[in-house]
Every structure is written in structure tokens, then in C-alpha cells.
Amino acid sequence: MFKKILKCYDYKFIFAIVFLCLIGLLMVYSSSMITAITRYGVSADYFYQKQKIALILGLLIFCITSFVPYKIYSNKKLLQCSLLIVIMLLVAVLIFGHTAGNAQSWFKIGPLTIQPLEVTKLVLIIYLAAVLSKKQSYINDLKRSIMPPAMIVCLICFLIALQPDYGGILLILITCGSIVVCSGIELKTILKLVLLSIIIMFIVLLILLITGNLDIIFSPVRLGRFTSFMNPFEEELGNGYQLVNSYLAISNGGILGSGLGQSIQKAGYLPESHTDFIMAVIADELGFLGVVVVLFLLFFIVFRGLKISIQCQDSFGALLAVGISVMIGIQAFVNLGAVTGILPITGVTLPFISFGGSSLVLLLGSIGVVVNISMFNRFEKKYKYKRLEVT
Question: Which UniProt keywords apply (predicted)?
């Protein structure tokens, strides 16, 4: 039985994930070695070593989640406990959290920094997939099917807004929205839900305007991020500084790149070169070909995840694979959009590539669940085929 299970794993999928992580580890070292010394006063391999530890831990969790049957996660008590823990963590980070990048979103424990948002995204995906898969018979009844989990999502988004981390809220809403859309809900019900969401957003903005707290969302710093990406060269020493230097790094790479470790922009000119703007360093050092390899691997992982969802006969597994795949795809799109100036800078990192232990560990744990769903899909098909062959 164990040998049959091993034969059902998608090893091309697993190889793509591991290979992408190894590229990320290499580029974290290359993009952070100068920053580590000049900006933080630590050894050149400081961020590399932290990312390496996170990668080892993440791969261990990946192995566990890829072997543990995914249907266990739909257990009601487990879901309730997970949601309670997430809410407690989000409340605790508002009281005891560490502030970085204008957001109080991290727990700092010695050399470790942990971001509850990463755990929150995965828990919400599992929760929505489990709840909506059990409500298929009345999925178009908004009051019974969508509204109860929507209230939980709104509560969690409110707690994240207090940090504030609007980039994180955007990722959560798009991911949760994709699960709802793929749950079998009718188009007219989706339109009702969209209209209701717009009305709620309008009411919230109106309340903030009346109370004089509109700058909570539209602060000068956040407005600067929106205006600078439209014409960054007008503010190249201000809000457009990051984007201008990202352009310079990308243009300097050409087809083959300037060579691994040879980027000039990472030497203090490009802020957050090992996190938000690591793709600019990849374009500089590995060139167009290096960018194509990274984009292909990201596309392959997201596409494979969506294909696994379509092939899954179990509604919980299908929605789970959709949520995790969309989460990775949207995060990559938002990051790449910021690096290329298509979207405003939101502080979203590039999946599996950017420096960030919490993000890497949770992403590997999440994609391990998708690998497990894929394994069960293949196993069930082979089992059914053999059973039919015998009869």
C-alpha cells in the first residue's frame, strides 16, 4: 500500500516547488549580503542563514502535510480551535507586536520574527473550503451559506486593518472570494454578494469621513505609494525612489544578466532588495532568462494547483486546492506588479523567493496540502480503474 501511495505523487510538481525554493535561497544570499553588512551591521550571510533554517523547517512541514490525508483538516473541532488561535494571535500582536514598515504585524522573539498573517491566510482557506463544501445543497442561500463565514472573515480583516496591513487584507479578500466563486454559487448570487460588499465598503468609508478618521486608510504615506507608481520619475528621490531603482536594475540585466552577485542596485540603492524587490535583483543578475525561469516555475505551480482542483471529485479538496493556488498566484502577481510599476507598492513578498521565514514555512506547508490532494486524486483513479478491470 505504501509503495502504491508513493507512486501516486506528482514528482514534477514537487521538483518545481523545491527548485524554486533553492533559487530563492540563492538569491536571498546574493541580494542581502551587502545590505546585511552596511545597513544592519551583521555578517554577509545573516539573512541567508535565517532563510536556510526556514527552508529546512518548511520542507519538513511540507513532507508532513503532503503525507497527512487532507480530509482531516475539515474536522469541526479542529477548525474552531484554529480560528480561535488565529483571532487570539491577531489580538496579541496588536498589544505585544513588533512594528516594522509602519505596521505592527510581527512577534519578535529574540532573533525570530513571526507574522500571524501567514497562518491566518491558510486557516481561512481551510475554514471556507470546509464550510462551503458542507453547504452545497443550499449554497445560493446567502443568509445560511455565505453570511456566517463572511462575518468571520470580516472580523479577521478588521483585526488586520488595526495593524494596519491593507496588502494582507487584499490578499485574503481575493483568495476568499475565489473560493466562494468556485463553490458552485450561481452568478446572480455572486452579483448580490458583490453589491452587498460595495454597500458595506461605502458605509465604512462614510463613517470614517464623518468621524474625521479617513486618514487611517488614506494616509499621506499610502497615497504617496499610489501616486508615485503612475509617474515615479517625478518623485525619484521621494516616493518613487524604490520603483525608479527597480527599473534601473531590470534594465541593467539584459538577456543574460550582469552575473550572480554583480548587481549594483542592491548596494544600497534598492531598498528591500531581498524582500519586496528581489525580482529586480534577479532581473539584474540573471537577466531575462533568469526571470523567465522563475516566472515559469511560479506559473507551473499555480496552474498545476488549479488543475488538481478541477480533477478532484471531493468538493472540500477542490476548494482547498483553489484557495491555496489563488493565494500563491495573487501574491506573485501583486509583488511583480509592484516591481514593474503596474501596481502600487504594497509590501507583498514574492512566494518561495523573497526573504521571510514565516511566509516560506507556511507556503510550503500549504502547497504540501495541494500535493496530498493530487496524490489522493491519482490513487483513487488507479484504484477505480483496477477495480473495474477485475469486474
Answer: Cell cycle, Cell division, Cell shape, Glycosyltransferase, Membrane, Peptidoglycan synthesis, Transferase, Transmembrane, Transmembrane helix
All three cell numbers of 262, joined, read 554583480
Q: Are strands 98-100 and 103-109 parallel, antiparallel or unpaired?
A: antiparallel
Which grid coordinates are listed for 212? Answer: 474625521
The whole-angstrom separation of Cα 163 and Cα 94 is 6
* 388 — pLDDT class (breaks 50, 70, 90): very low
Q: Is 332 in contact with 351 (CB distance < 8 Å)?
A: yes
CA distance linking residue 120 with residue 142, whole number of Å: 24
The C-alpha cell at 47 is 539573512
Spatial neighbors of 217 by CB under 8 A, at least 6 apart, are: 166, 205, 208
Q: Which of 106, 104, 152 is nearest to 125 (CA)?
A: 152
As beta bridge partners, residue 114 has 107
CA nearest neighbour of 87 among 155, 148, 151, 147? 155
DSSP 343: S
Contact (CB, 8 A) for 236 and 211: no
Q: HEC string of 14-41?
A: HHHHHHHHHHHHHHHHHHHHHHHHHCCC
pLDDT tens across 92-139, in order?
998 888 777 667 887 887 777 788 888 999 999 999 999 999 988 888
